[in-house]
Write a structure and sequence with these properties.
With 270 residues, the protein is mainly alpha-helical. It has 15 helices and 3 strands. The chain has a domain of 66 residues. The protein is elongated, with a radius of gyration of 21 Å. It holds the Pfam family HEAT.
């Protein structure tokens, strides 16, 4: 019964946390019994069960309860199979979404060597625009996960493709995450490649794309500033923040908790 399997998935994270806290008593229970269930339910025939399994997996990753070997040897192979070119459309969309959400929780090596090649393939998926849109909406997070070298070598060419996609929603998603992508690149790439690309988005034929680009203009310009002098920095949640001057931080009139935060438009693309 699918409802039973769904309910079971919802109970996995609290059980795993209990086992983690009681590891001397149950040293291998999670890895031997629970993790195989989570992996199996990622391919369940029922979409609600799969969704519950995906949510459970993300919670386990956030709590750092899944070992690196299980991630690389059990979870990633399943996701690569589900996102393969000949995979079922529904499975592929779900797999792309979970890959993007996982990226920020995994080691840079794991993302770059195992997941990044498939992500680059999916950016050019000609069959499903939903797949390309998920890639575009999460592009900044992937760039941040793999760092500058891999971003400039592998991801920037794909970003150019998405920014000129025939579907306007794709170009809009790129405009919304432009600041996050720019922040990951070198000043030279920012100036010579991303600036002309941004001009093309701000001059797009679709007004929704232009509007998104204008909203990202300020955050994009901020990536050209020297953080040490401008006091601008990117938080882990993707927001652009202003750090108070040192003399103000040390005074009673301005505490660090009163930082002004400017929301970046690099996330939550729809």
């Amino acid at each position: 019964e699918p409802t039973v399997r769904t309910e079971l998935m919802e109970q996995i994270p609290p059980i795993a946390i209990f086992l983690q806290e009681s590891r001397p008593k149950f040293p291998t229970a999670f890895f031997e019994y629970l993790m195989p269930i989570v992996v199996r339910y990622l391919t369940d025939v029922n979409n609600q069960v799969r969704k519950a399994g995906q949510e459970a997996l993300l919670i386990l990753l956030e709590q750092d309860l899944v070992s690196q070997s299980d991630i690389e040897n059990k979870v990633c192979p399943i996701l690569l199979d589900l996102s393969a070119p000949d995979s079922d459309d529904e499975y592929k969309v779900e797999a792309v979404n979970i890959i993007c959400k996982m990226a920020s929780m995994l080691s840079r090596t794991t993302v770059e060597h195992i997941l990044l090649p498939r992500f680059c393939e999916l950016c050019s998926d000609g069959k499903l625009f939903q797949v390309r849109k998920i890639c575009a909406a999460n592009f900044g997070d992937i760039c941040n996960a793999v760092g500058q070298e891999a971003t400039e070598r592998l991801l920037i060419p794909k970003f150019f493709e998405l920014c000129s996609d025939s579907v306007w929603g794709m170009r809009k998603a790129c405009a919304e995450c432009f600041m996050a992508v720019s922040y990951t690149t070198s000043p030279e790439v920012r100036r010579s490649k991303l600036s002309p690309l941004f001009i093309s988005l701000i001059s797009d034929t679709c007004r929704w794309v232009r509007q998104a680009a204008f909203q990202s203009l300020g955050p994009f310009i901020s990536t050209f500033a020297n953080p040490s002098s401008a006091g601008l920095y990117i938080r882990e949640d993707g927001t652009l923040s202003i750090r108070p001057p040192a003399q103000d931080v040390n005074s009673n009139s301005c505490q660090p908790s009163n930082n002004i935060t400017l929301m970046s438009s690099s996330t939550n693309a729809t």
